[in-house]
Backbone:
């Protein structure tokens, strides 16, 4: 074969077509790689491919991957795995899977000899272990476990890797270490989840006796209790009804929720217990029981459902109820036929109408029945172009953006759950930071009144139905050969095992609910539009510059904490802990007194010692950080458990920064700034 096809050093500013041409020549040359005299060529091709595999264009990355598969050797495997540092899609995922599959032996040899190091490449390691044959990954993992019994605190990627790629033997070893108390609480919970993941996504279970895990239901740690329950559900060996019934009243919300999840997975054998719990004395337990019952037997649960709807008088509870209810296949239509013609509480109806139209769902029967039953109007007419222009003009003339910001933050509208400003807020819909500078008021009004008219590129949703009777909608966050992860309308990630997928369709409606403005009066509507149209323009609604804390978590320190000797929970408790109330700063970065007070209302019989406002910063490398706190004298600044007054030197990673506030002298506002570290937003 002629040697004139030798690949020249690669011009990276070339066009996409040109890059593909270079790639094609690399491909053509690939078969030569087996010749002894072409080692230098192979090295040259690898050098070229090392750049192409990081190309901005996914198509180029894809072809680079397939070329790498033809050059047998550990370096090719290493380069192929680098593709994971960029956005993946199902095609790339599959191509990488094939490539690693073909290069498995050299990769394993490199891993075993230490030439390929896994530190800092956990993602790559996990992928490769799943791509190679099960007996190969089992061999690799088995050796690791043999060499070093997993550390008590579970540090390192091994627990999760065993869950993702281990065979019965490795899972068995993990199970034994777990039930024999070989891990601390947090590692125990992780090990239990890893065992569950293996059962759900790969249908692999540990060898040996699995009964021992039920003793972990007695653990004082809620994550351990809940993960144990969940695992017993995944293995289809749930605890007996008495235990489930007791756990349904567990002090931990997480555990209570898991009980019902397990009951659902168990199917119709759970019905007797569910019917009993549907008349429990606690309304939240009642609602959960009815919802689970409905998931298993929609028509049987009918009367109990109608009852539950009539008891929904609070926004938060109503929202949770509707979201879980409408995740049941065919639920909306079914309930619409059963609801009474009047007497539905307004809060229940309003929230139901919104949820029925969010996330690309459009349950019109239910919307109309709820509206009628609560005496509300269901404005579903098409809005004319004239009406939209009039409203935009009025908003520009008389809307008040300061008041509009408060409308935007209202929890019943849920704007912040789906949209972020300055990075703070949800990621279901587009970022709003500069919407006012980039969009005309007419466009804003139209987006609010008729979200379905134009769906923004990249925000089309999918609707997924599962074999076990659930429906989910949202945008695709990531996808692999075994799992699909969506971001749902509540900004939560939903993981669905591919083996459980029944159908998957593009949503016809926007993920943003129609009729959101129905509950606002005209002034409020105009204020909201005025606010949106200011976003990103210079002035007090410009959130484009970083450097200020936007996401806070607030909590009270009470006398009882001191009595119970709890003085360091603020440094140790999980940030998701119910004790912290999440609050976003205003667009200008201020956390105002009203916001602080709203988030820290305490029962009148407890006395507050302090109000805490916590935020987090992240450093890419160790450094000195200067914080600038704007607040009145009654406040103190603490970092990682120590009070600070000047610059602090911090290690790389995340750090908690806390403002401690005298509850009797809550300042007008607090504002925390730094240029030396990034505030953590997600
Ligand atoms: C359930 C999630 C959700 C809620 C709640 C929600 N949105 Fe949206 N929003 C979206 C999604 C998704 C899009 C993009 C799809 C589309 O264009 O319809 C969007 C689009 C928009 C757009 C157009 C943005 C653009 O760049 O084209 C505006 C403006 C907007 N939303 C404002 C709001 C306001 C104000 C609220 C509260 C009253 C709100 N949204 C509530 C999900 C939501």
Residues:
């Amino acid at each position: 074969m002629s040697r004139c096809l030798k690949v020249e050093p690669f011009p990276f500013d070339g066009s996409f077509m040109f890059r593909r041409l270079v790639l094609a020549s690399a491909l053509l040359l690939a078969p030569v790689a087996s010749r002894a005299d072409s080692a230098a060529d192979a090295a040259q091709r690898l050098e070229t491919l090392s750049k192409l595999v990081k190309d901005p264009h996914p198509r180029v990355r894809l072809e680079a991957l397939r070329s790498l598969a033809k050059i047998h050797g550990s370096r090719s495997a290493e380069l192929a795995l680098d593709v994971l540092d960029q956005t993946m899609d199902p095609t790339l995922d599959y191509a990488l899977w094939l490539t690693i599959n073909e290069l498995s032996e050299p990769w394993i040899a490199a891993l075993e000899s230490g030439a390929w190091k896994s530190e800092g490449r956990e993602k790559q390691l996990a992928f490769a272990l799943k791509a190679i044959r099960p007996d190969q990954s089992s061999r690799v993992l088995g050796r690791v476990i043999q060499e070093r019994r997993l550390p008590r605190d579970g540090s390192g990627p091994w627990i999760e890797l065993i869950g993702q790629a281990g065979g019965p033997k490795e899972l068995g070893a993990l199970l034994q270490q777990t039930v024999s108390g070989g891990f601390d609480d947090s590692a125990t919970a992780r090990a239990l989840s890893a065992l569950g993941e293996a059962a759900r996504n790969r249908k692999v279970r540990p060898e040996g006796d699995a009964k021992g895990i039920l003793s972990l239901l007695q653990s004082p740690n809620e994550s351990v209790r809940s993960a144990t329950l969940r695992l017993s559900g995944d293995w289809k060996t749930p605890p007996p009804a008495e235990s489930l019934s007791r756990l349904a009243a567990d002090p931990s919300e997480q555990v209570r929720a898991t009980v019902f999840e397990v009951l659902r997975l168990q199917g119709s054998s759970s019905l007797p217990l569910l019917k009993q719990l549907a008349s429990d004395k606690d309304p939240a337990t009642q609602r959960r029981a009815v919802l689970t019952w409905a998931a298993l037997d929609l028509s049987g649960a009918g009367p109990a459902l109608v009852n539950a709807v009539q008891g929904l008088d609070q926004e938060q509870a109503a929202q949770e109820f509707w979201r879980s209810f409408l995740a049941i296949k065919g639920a909306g239509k079914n309930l619409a036929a059963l609801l009474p013609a009047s007497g539905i509480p307004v809060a229940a109806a309003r929230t139901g109408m919104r949820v029925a139209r969010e996330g690309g769902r459009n349950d019109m029967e239910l919307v109309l029945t709820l509206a009628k039953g609560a005496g509300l109007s269901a404005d579903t007419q098409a809005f004319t172009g004239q009406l939209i222009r009039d409203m935009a003009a009025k908003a520009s003339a008389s809307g008040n953006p300061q008041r509009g910001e408060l409308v935007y933050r209202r929890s019943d509208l849920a704007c912040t759950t789906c949209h972020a400003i300055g990075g703070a807020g949800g990621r279901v819909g587009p970022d709003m930071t500069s919407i006012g500078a980039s969009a005309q008021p007419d466009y804003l009004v139209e987006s609010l009144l008729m979200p379905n008219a134009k769906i923004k590129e990249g925000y089309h949703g999918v609707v997924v139905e599962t074999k076990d009777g659930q429906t989910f909608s949202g945008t695709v966050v990531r996808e692999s050969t075994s799992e699909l992860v969506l971001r749902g309308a509540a900004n939560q990630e939903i993981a669905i095992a591919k083996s459980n997928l029944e159908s998957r369709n593009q949503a016809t409606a926007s993920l943003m609910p129609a009729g959101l403005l129905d509950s606002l009066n005209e002034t409020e509507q105009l204020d909201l539009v005025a606010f949106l149209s200011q976003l990103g323009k210079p002035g007090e609604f410009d959130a484009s510059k970083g450097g200020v804390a936007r996401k806070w978590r607030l909590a009270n320190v009470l006398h009882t904490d001191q009595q119970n000797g709890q003085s360091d929970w603020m440094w140790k408790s999980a940030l998701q802990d119910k004790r912290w109330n999440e609050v976003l700063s205003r667009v200008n970065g201020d956390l105002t007194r009203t916001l602080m007070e709203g988030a820290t209302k305490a029962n009148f019989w407890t006395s507050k010692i302090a109000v805490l406002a916590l935020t987090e910063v992240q450093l890419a490398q160790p450094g000195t950080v200067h914080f600038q706190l704007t607040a009145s004298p009654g406040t103190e600044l603490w970092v990682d458990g120590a009070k600070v007054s000047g610059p602090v030197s911090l290690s790389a990673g995340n750090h908690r920064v806390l403002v401690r506030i005298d509850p009797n002298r809550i300042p007008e506002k607090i504002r925390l700034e730094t240029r030396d570290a990034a505030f953590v937003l997600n």
About this structure: Residues 358-359, 408, 413-415, 417-419, 428-430, 435, 444, 447-448, 451, 455-456, 459, 489, 510-513, 516, 528, 532 surround heme C (CB under 6 Å). Confidence is low (pLDDT under 50) at residues 1-13, 31-36.
